[in-house]
Amino acid sequence: MTTADGPKLLRPGEVAAMFGVNAKTVARWAKEGRIRCIRTPGGHMRIYAEDVHALVVRDGAMQATGDLPPGV
Q1: Is 25 within a domain?
Q2: What is the pLDDT of residue 23?
Q3: Which residue range(s) make up the domain with 30?
Q4: Is residue 69 assigned to a domain?
Q5: For the whole model, what pTM was predicted?
Q6: Mean pLDDT of successive 10-residue segments in the chain (72 residues)?
């Protein structure tokens, strides 16, 4: 999901699939401050793709090439 003028945002399920974890784990990461998120007007969580990329690089959980979708 890309906002018109803002950063690329991902759904918790998309992030969870990248790391092979449950979406609740992603929500916990956001609560712990490992990744930033926003809430939509409907109350849904959206995660900043740049934070997901930084988590990948920092933790070395995945290789930065080939494992992330385009634009992340």
Answers
A1: yes
A2: 94
A3: 9-59
A4: no
A5: 0.70
A6: 74 92 93 91 95 77 47 46
The candidate with the shortest Cα–Cα distance to 19, out of 43, 38, 47, 45, is: 47
**pLDDT at site 7:** 85
Q: What is the rounded distance in angstroms from the CA atom of residue 49 to the CA atom of residue 46? A: 9
Lookup result for tokens 């906002």: 3
Task: Please state, in angstroms and rounded to a whole number, the distance separating the CA atoms of residues 23 and 15.
Answer: 8
What is the 3-class SS of 29-65, one letter each residue? HHHHCCCCEEECCCCCEEEEHHHHHHHHHHHCCCCCC
- Please report whether residue 27 resides in a domain: yes
- In a domain, residue 33? The reply is yes
CATH number reported for the structural domain that contains residue 40 in this entry: 1.10.1660.10
Residue 65's pLDDT is what?
43
